[in-house]
Design goal:
The structure is a single chain. By secondary structure, the protein is α+β, with helices and mostly antiparallel strands. It has a single domain, classed as Trna Endonuclease, Chain: A, domain 1 (3-Layer(aba) Sandwich). About 30% of the residues lie in helices and about 30% in strands. The strands form 3 sheets. Strands 2-5-6-8-9-11 form a 6-stranded mixed sheet, sandwiched between helices. The chain has a 3-stranded mixed sheet with strand order 1-4-3, with no helix packed on it. Helix 3 crosses helix 4. The protein is globular. About 20% of the residues are buried. About 10% of the residues have low confidence.
Length: about 200
């Protein structure tokens, strides 16, 4: 089956992430680079197993354009396209509150390009904030293996100002308004530590 992205490029399948992890030696984590999506998925699995939170990655919508029916009881999808996601990547429940966030990474060392975010994602964050949900972004600087949690209100403000100012967020601003997330092994990204401190410290 051919699955294509909106730009027409064919999606190349990869080795199952959990299988790949199982082949890694136990001491190799500190030597490898960040794999942001994989690390967040592992962290969410850990939090779920520990009963701390229920957070999942939203599936990317797929548009099926070609289906064959070799048998009456079976259908074979021959061609499909990934649609552009209309919201953020992750959502769930933590301590009785709705949680919603986007995760992005960059190879830049001193700033985070705002082109990594789409207008519909920012609009979704506005709606979540307006509805009283917990909303933020996880920003990863892959060269230095640093992850920061930035509240959605700051992310929205930076995005809204990009037309008048610069096209990226300086790392210094992310350090000022955001929170450095501890990187470990289980979970790999300890973002709930920051969520608890930032959003529940007054409880």
């Amino acid at each position: 089956m051919a699955i294509r992205y909106p730009n027409g490029k064919t999606y190349a399948g990869s080795v199952n992430k959990r299988q790949a992890n199982q082949r890694l030696p136990s001491d190799s984590y500190s030597k490898r680079g960040m794999r942001l999506e994989e690390d967040i998925d592992e962290s969410n699995d850990f939090y779920l197993a520990q009963g701390e939170a229920v957070i999942h990655k939203k599936p990317t919508p797929v548009q099926i354009v070609h289906v064959d029916y070799p048998k009456r009881s079976a259908a074979v999808i021959r061609e499909a396209y990934f649609k552009q996601a209309s919201t953020t990547d992750y959502n769930g429940v933590y301590q009785g509150s709705y949680i919603d966030f986007e995760a992005k990474e960059t190879k830049n060392k001193s700033s985070f390009p705002l082109k990594n975010f789409h207008a519909h994602q920012i609009d979704h964050m506005r709606q979540v904030v307006h509805a009283g949900g917990i909303c933020f972004v996880l920003l990863c600087f892959s060269p230095t293996r640093e992850v920061f949690l930035l509240d959605a209100t700051h992310m929205i403000d930076f995005y809204d100002k990009q037309l008048q100012t610069r096209k990226s967020i300086p790392k210094s601003a992310i350090q000022k308004y955001g929170h450095a997330v501890r990187i470990g092994l289980h979970p790999r990204i300890h973002f709930l530590e920051i969520v608890k401190t930032v959003y529940f410290s007054g409880d």
